[in-house]
Every structure is written in C-alpha cells, then in structure tokens.
C-alpha cells in the first residue's frame, strides 16, 4: 500500500492511493466556544441542498451536543472503539518530537487505514454502516450534560505525555456543541473505499465530491468515512454528501459579482463561530501565508485543531476547543495541541484578537487580512497573565487584494434617536 505524508500525524501513513494534492485546499475554522446551537447553519444547508424526497434524514451540516450527542448516534464512540480494539493501549501521541513538519508531535498509533492490516481485515479502512435508527436525530441528547469528571482511562483512547500546563478550571458538569460538515479530507476514507472510483477530490480547491452518475450505492463510503458524512438516499439508491456549496466557492453566485463566497452554513452562522477559506498548496505542503487567516490560525498559531486527527484522513475542518471541557476529552477529540490552543485563545495577543473578529463578518471569502493599530482600551489579568486590549482595526481582502470587510476590536456603540426608538 502507498505511503503519504500526513502533517497532522507528523509522519507518513498508509493510504490506498499515491499522494496527489490540489492547488488550493478548502478549509474552515469553527470556534466551539461561541456556538449557541441555534441550528441556523443546519437549516441553511437543509433548505439549500437536502429538501427533496428521500433526503428527509439527511443533514450534511449538523450540530451535536457533546459528549452524548451524535449524528448518526454514537458515530465517534464507535469508531474510536474500533481503533482501540485494533491496537489496544497503543494509540498514543509522542509530543516530544515537534517541529514545522510535525506541529502536533507524532501519532504512534494506527489510523483507520492501518488498522485493517493489524486485525487481518481485507478492506481499505475500518468502519461500519450505521443503522437506520442511528440516523434518526440530528442532535440526540440535546443539551444533556456530563455529570462526572471525564477521565482518560475510562475512554482509553488517548495516552502519552501531553505536557499539560494550563490551570484553567475544568467544569465537572459540562457539555459543548460540535458543529460538523464533511471535512473535505486530504486522504478521504470515502474516496479510498469506493470500489467504483466514483469519489474524487477537485484539483482546484480540494473539495471532495461523489460523481452521481458513477455511484451504484454500495455504501462503502458510508461505511469507511469515519466522520459518517456520506449518506445513502433511499429514493435514488445512491450516496450523497456535502458539496461545499461549490458554486459559491467558485464565485458563481450573482450576489457578489464574481467574488468567491463562503458556503451557506458558514455565511448563516448566528453565533459568528465560523470562518472559511482556501489555503495554497505546493508540493503537497501548505504554502506559508501569514496574512491568510486560515493559515495563521491553523498552521502558524496552532489555535485551531483538526477533528480526530488520529483517524488519519487529514481532515480540513479545524476547531478552537472549548475552554472548560475536561482536557482528556478534548485531547481525544482534537489531539495533543489542546493545551497550547486554549492558552492562546484565553489570553490572545493583538493579532490573534483582531483575526478572531473576522469570523462571520462577510459572505465573501477572506484571502488575506491586515491589522491597523488602535489605542489601548482595557487591561486586566486572566489566570495570572496580563492581558491588554487595543481597539485595532482588522481589514479582510478578497483574492485580488480588494478590501471586503473592516471591523474593530471594540464593537461600535449606536444611540437610537429619540424620534425613532425602534431603529438604529
Ligand atoms: S469527512 Fe468523510 S465524506 Fe468527507 S471527505 Fe472526509 S472521508 Fe470523505
Ligand atoms: S449557526 Fe453558528 S451558532 Fe448557530 S448552531 Fe450553527 S455553528 Fe452554532
């Protein structure tokens, strides 16, 4: 089996096909700290793409309450358990080896593509097809909190020296919202699994699509996508999945006169938790682009982390982990970079704070940004660290470098005129 380089794992890993990369990669950052589970994103997706007969239970975008919620039910618990059973106690991270090629250390366990060999299974990746019952609810167990402290040993899938140094209070009773769409993975499980070669990754933007004319509904993608994002449609008997609203990504929506746009679920986000973009790829590596908000948050500051990197698909959805969730749970979900991410997010410096203001401020894709310095407006201590806030202005630009959004760190203050109290 060929080997490919997976930067999230910090090592080469087996995959069905040789390495082949797009010119740009579709990426997104979700800030789990800000989500209010209003499900506007879910409905934006539903009303755009899956409102037809046979798609009633199809939610390409869903927001689930962790730790109990899941769509389909128990999806991550089940795949984590399968990974653990294939390599008991050995799926650990080594965080002593960290550099630019291995920004989160080295994963020394097995991925979903490596597990079959371990257990003598003749397929591309381990997986399972959820039952019809498991697809019934987009957020089963909504707002159900976990009542006891989560411990590593109880779940048993994360191990190693994680170098934890933060002292934030972790809540004993907790839940948080996890927003999910297809991750348009670099090494997709769905693509590797398809016996018809009906699934492909676009050269221009890395979006992963199912060719509806080639698909014969074998459900291998449903089985071997660890995130359970391809879905079978009973009326057509073929599979469908998130298409990353590609006409918008291509700039074909007449609304913006050619400017490339974020997907519908991103653009609709009420909690302003989402920022989506494209990163340049060269020779299989992300090009260093400090002025690209995606590159800056994911690769440079490492404040946004991949979802279950240990699965090995190199997902291109990234998350800012929730601050008060027990670390062992977050580390199992987002890898060993959780402490570093939360440390920065809790006490952001000027640049980071400015970029965080860009989330959900425009429907257009922000390709680059710059920050104009403003006056100091606030100073305090957060968990023993000095925090100074400046009213900086962050400016977002489109692909051509034209300004498309301008926001300040301090929100503007509007006074309603007496004669029009209901207006601003
Ligand atoms: S999340 Fe699943 S469906 Fe999407 S690209 Fe990755 S493996 Fe394929
Ligand atoms: S629209 Fe935004 S805030 Fe609302 S549920 Fe979706 S991700 Fe969360």
How would you portray this structure in words?
- With 424 residues, the protein is an alpha+beta fold.
- It folds into 2 domains: 3-346, Alpha-Beta Plaits (2-Layer Sandwich); 352-408, no CATH class.
- It is built from 12 helices and 20 strands.
- The chain has helices at residues 40-49, 75-86, 115-119, 152-155, 189-193, 220-224, 246-249, 264-267, 293-300, 327-334, 338-346, 350-356; strands at residues 3-6, 11-14, 24-31, 62-66, 93-94, 106-107, 176-180, 199-201, 208-210, 231-233, 238-240, 274-282, 285-286, 305-306, 317-320, 368-372, 376-382, 385-390, 393-397, 403-408.
- The longest helix is centred in the first third of the chain and has 12 residues, at 75-86.
- The structure holds iron/sulfur cluster (2 copies).
Largest sheet: 5 strands, mixed
> Average pLDDT value?
93
Task: Please give the CATH class of the largest domain.
Answer: Alpha Beta
What structural class is derived from the secondary structure elements?
Answer: alpha+beta
Please report the distance between the alpha carbons of the first and last residues.
62 Å
- Number of helical segments? 12
Helicity, in percent?
A: 10-25%
CATH topology of the largest domain: Alpha-Beta Plaits
Query: CATH architecture of the largest domain, please?
Result: 2-Layer Sandwich
Count of structural domains:
2
Strand order of the largest sheet: 13-12-3-15-14
What proportion strand?
Answer: 15-25%
Low-confidence stretches: 152-167
In this entry the ligands are:
iron/sulfur cluster
Taken from the alpha-carbon principal axes, the silhouette is globular
Radius of gyration: 21 Å
E-strand count: 20
